[in-house]
């Protein structure tokens, strides 16, 4: 049995592309009112137009860089003022930068970008959003993790560390909110073909394509299905974690290619 979510508000970070975009569309189709945050307002407005056409609802759109506390505060406050409530936070904003071993990485800006976005940004969003959920008597935090938060691999030390941190934060938060009306979930995908690898390889499309060569990766819509399913379970049901990989993948670096 699914939860009736009509009128509930879902707030999505990194909503301008990939898993964030797909989740925004599917959550809206499931009945959520959606608030979309990302650095590219033009892309958000295009997604809002799709949501309007598909569901008839007006999505809330606002620039958001989760690395900056003042933007996070302004975004959450604006969503609460606009809708009067916040029921779901999808902490989707995240990225990987580079594949160099730790001792060969000279550009620590890559490390800063991953840690500030994947960890600090998630913490800032959670800190601002959850009190509104508790006040409203209903809430759900869904964190977009990764199998990289369960299995480290060479060339991904800092990215893996950031996703291990997401899993630790998720588990601790669930304990901290015990007895409160807020559910906490992590969705941990394996290989998903989005802009992720393009960003990791600094825009090199050929290298990004090679990551998925000879195998069938997951899609953003596959992960959005998991997010929406977890979000629409009855209120007394908490899905702690969803680990999802393509059939062609058994773990980090363990991929069947044809």
TrEMBL record:
Presence of the UniProt keyword Oxidoreductase in the record: yes
InterPro entries (UniProt xref): NAD(P)-bd_dom_sf (IPR036291), Sc_DH/Rdtase_CS (IPR020904), SDR_fam (IPR002347)
Keyword terms of this UniProt record: Oxidoreductase
Molecular function terms from GO: oxidoreductase activity, acting on the CH-OH group of donors, NAD or NADP as acceptor
Alphabetized Gene3D superfamilies for the sequence: NAD(P)-binding Rossmann-like Domain
PANTHER family from the UniProt entry: ALCOHOL DEHYDROGENASE
Sequence similarity: Belongs to the short-chain dehydrogenases/reductases (SDR) family.
Name listed for the protein in its UniProt record: Short-chain dehydrogenase
